[in-house]
Automatic annotation (TrEMBL):
<feature type="DNA-binding region" description="H-T-H motif">
    <location>
        <begin position="41"/>
        <end position="60"/>
    </location>
</feature>
<protein>
    <submittedName>
        <fullName>TetR family transcriptional regulator</fullName>
    </submittedName>
</protein>
<dbReference type="InterPro" id="IPR041642">
    <property type="entry name" value="KstR_C"/>
</dbReference>
<dbReference type="InterPro" id="IPR050109">
    <property type="entry name" value="HTH-type_TetR-like_transc_reg"/>
</dbReference>
<dbReference type="Pfam" id="PF17925">
    <property type="entry name" value="TetR_C_20"/>
</dbReference>
<feature type="domain" description="HTH tetR-type">
    <location>
        <begin position="18"/>
        <end position="78"/>
    </location>
</feature>
<keyword id="KW-0238">DNA-binding</keyword>
<dbReference type="Pfam" id="PF00440">
    <property type="entry name" value="TetR_N"/>
</dbReference>
<dbReference type="InterPro" id="IPR009057">
    <property type="entry name" value="Homeodomain-like_sf"/>
</dbReference>
<dbReference type="InterPro" id="IPR001647">
    <property type="entry name" value="HTH_TetR"/>
</dbReference>
């Protein structure tokens, strides 16, 4: 399922089902914000969202599925916020770096939630691939939009975007574990974002 309420492997949810799913994701985020990964217990999520435990498992087969879906939902909300105030950098690299740092600071305000979601991504196995792919697609969409109105990205640019995604997730992980300062995170992200300018196609004469 995606953040808008559509199933990844089936028909779109009804309005009532989508509302139930939003309650589940909100309950998961609230529990994770208070106590991190270990605080997210499926029974407590079911109680907090006022759904039966069996119903919860039909939406999300495991805690990992639920937390990865929560990250996708959080990214979707971030994307909407970023659209309201687009980055102001002069180059594509500067705009993407600004965008990713704003996303990082949003996660920084909820460190327990961020840690829970990142741990879920780390633990995700092949059964969670559709949800993990959704997180990757949402991150890619945020980066491509920050780059600005251009022609469809070249294979080289898409490769640069993937490297930037990896750097952003790695920087978030190292910051959460206390192995990197915010200043180091910014330097790493800005360095990776320079790949965008290096892969920009030459202007046609």
């Amino acid at each position: 399922m995606d953040a808008g309420g559509a199933r990844l492997d089936g028909p779109p949810l009804t309005e009532r089902q989508a509302a139930r799913r939003r309650r589940i994701l909100r309950a998961c985020a609230q529990l994770a914000s208070r106590g991190g990964f270990d605080a997210v217990q499926m029974r407590e999520v079911a109680e907090s969202s006022q759904v039966a435990l069996g119903t919860l498992y039909r939406y999300f087969p495991s805690k990992i599925h639920l937390l990865v879906a929560t990250m996708q939902d959080q990214l979707d909300h971030m994307h909407g916020t970023l659209r309201k105030k687009p980055p102001a950098g002069e180059t594509a690299a500067e705009r993407v770096a600004e965008t990713l740092m704003r996303a990082f600071h949003a996660l920084q305000r909820e460190p327990h939630l961020a840690d829970a979601m990142v741990r879920a991504l780390t633990f995700a196995d092949r059964s969670v691939s559709p949800e993990v792919d959704q997180v990757s697609r949402q991150t890619t969409a945020i980066i491509l939009e920050a780059m600005g109105p251009t022609a469809p990205p070249t294979p080289e640019q898409l490769s640069a975007v993937r490297v930037i995604e990896h750097t952003w997730h790695s920087a978030l992980t190292t910051w959460l574990s206390g192995r990197a300062s915010i200043a180091q995170v910014r330097i790493d992200i800005e360095t990776a974002c320079r790949l965008i300018d290096l892969t920009e196609p030459p202007a046609s004469s």
